[in-house]
Amino acid sequence: MPTTVYIVEDGPGNYRKAMESQEVEAWHRGLNSECASLTKNKVLQFIDSIPTGKKAIPTRLIMQHKLGPTGETVRY
Q1: What is the DSSP annotation of the chain?
Q2: Which residues are CB-neighbours of 69 under 8 A, at least 6 positions away?
Q3: Other CB atoms closer than 10 Å to residue 66's CB: what's the count?
Q4: Is the whole model's pTM more than 0.85, yes or no?
Q5: Closest by alpha carbon to 13, among 54, 73, 56, 63?
Q6: CA–CA separation, 66 vs 58, rounded Å?
Q7: Residue 11 burial by CB count (10 A; 0-12/13-18/19+): exposed, middle or buried?
């Protein structure tokens, strides 16, 4: 049973808009945190090139504000 419930609100439509927004610092922290979590859990691995005979799996950033119970942004 979940102990925390977040309400999700749309964020910027793409990475460029996030980096041009007034919340750029918060988006950087959120992206760094997400990449660290994916790497730690061995879900994501950064590489310089794709090995011969292998295919990359496309990914997409979905940037949203996660809101607390009173409507304040608690995570980016």
Answers
A1: --S---EEEE--SSHHHHHHSTTHHHHHHHHHHHHHHHHHTTS----SSPPTT--PPP-----EEEE-TTS-EEE-
A2: 5
A3: 15
A4: no
A5: 63
A6: 24
A7: buried
Question: 64 is written with which tokens?
Answer: 């949203």
- Please write the tens of the pLDDT for every residue from 34-59: 989 998 999 888 889 999 999 988 88
Question: CB pairs under 8 A, 24+ apart, for 65-72?
Answer: 65/8, 65/9, 65/10, 65/11, 66/6, 66/7, 66/8, 66/9, 67/6, 67/7, 67/8, 67/9, 68/6, 68/7, 69/5, 71/7
Sequence ranges of the domains in the chain:
7-75
> Which residue is listed with tokens 């090139």?
49
